[in-house]
Amino acid sequence: MREAGNAQARPYHHGDLSRALVDAARRILEAEGAAALSLRAVAREAGVSPAAPYHHFKDKTELLEAVAHGGWEEMGGAICEARANAPNVGVALSQIGITYVKFARDNPALYRLMYDTVRDRTAMPLHAKQEDSGYHQVQEALIEAGADPLDERELELATIASWCAVHGLAEMCQFKEFAPLKEAMGGEEAFLRAILRHYGTFTVGGFKH
Questions:
Q1: Quick check: 90 pLDDT over 90?
Q2: Most buried pick, 5, 26, 43, 50, via CB within 10 A?
Q3: Is pLDDT above 90 for 121?
Q4: CA angle at residue 179 from 176 to 183, to 5 degrees?
Q5: Model confidence at 127, in pLDDT bands (50, 70, 90)?
């Protein structure tokens, strides 16, 4: 059993309580899973009174949505950085895919929560089309790779296809049956790059018909 945090160990500045509560919820989520999350548990972890979370979140659902939103922002930032640091368009597409898969691998509980809250809303995250979102970064990378920005339907379909491809890869890539293949190819990243090459939208010009 993990020990709860306290205010002295994790102080927050005036006005930052909402952020402190989300951070506390993230720590509980990663250590014990979503089932262990409650407003009372988060208050204890953050070192504040049991009533304090209710000044920012009306219930557990609203808190979980805030944690998930932070996850989407974090993943979007990682994807944006991967695209910006890629030496060329072709590498940018594969780097986006690899970054997505690694984020899911490194943050399994958060990743599940991110999609669970989306399923509950039956809609994409509110910031999905913002410039710093992962989804928008995929779309921009496809345009750089040759997609026609004026053909909005095909561009949207290509973006959806790319997103679904890496989501499926993230769900499956840790299967133990793939371990010998990863080893033979020189590691996980080489394995992921090879798979992404088989997806048309991750090859420059591959989404064209």
A1: no
A2: 26
A3: no
A4: 170
A5: confident
Range of the domain at 38: 17-58
- The residue with greater pLDDT, 127 or 27, is 27
Question: Does one domain contain both 54 and 80?
Answer: no
Cα 187 from Cα 194, distance rounded (Å): 11
Q: What is the CATH number of the domain that holds 181?
A: 1.10.357
In a domain, 3, yes or no: no
**What does pTM read for this prediction?**
0.85
Which is more confident, 5 or 67?
67
* SS (HEC) of the chain: CCCCCCCCCCCCCCCCHHHHHHHHHHHHHHHHCHHHCCHHHHHHHHCCCCCHHHHCCCCHHHHHHHHHHHHHHHHHHHHHHHHHHCCCHHHHHHHHHHHHHHHHHHCHHHHHHHHHHHHHHCCCCCCCCCCCCHHHHHHHHHHHCCCCCCCHHHHHHHHHHHHHHHHHHHHHCCCHHHHHHHHHHCCHHHHHHHHHHCCHHHCCCCCCC
Mean pLDDT of 75-99: 93
4 in any annotated domain: no
Residue 89's nearest CA partner among 208, 194, 201, 177 is 201
158-185 mean pLDDT? 94
